Amino acid sequence: MTDAHRSTDKDRTAPAQPRESAPTAKVRSHQEDEAVSRAGHLSPRLVYHVVLRAGEEELMRPTSSLVFSGIAAGMLISMSVLAEAVFRAYLPEAGWRPLVENIGYTIGFLLVILSRMQLFTENTITTVLPLLTRPGPRCARGLARLWGIVLGANLIGCFAAAAFYALTQAIPPEVAAAMAELSHHATGAGAAAGFAKAIPAGILIAALVWMLSSGDQEHFWIIFIFTWLIAAGDFTHIVAGAVEMAYLLILGELAPGPAILSFFLPVLAGNVVGGTVVFTLTAWGQVREEIAPDTAQTRADDRRAR
Question: Which CATH number fits domain 44-171+179-300: 3.40.718.10, 1.20.1080.10, 2.60.40.420, 1.10.3720.10?
Answer without folding.
Answer: 1.20.1080.10
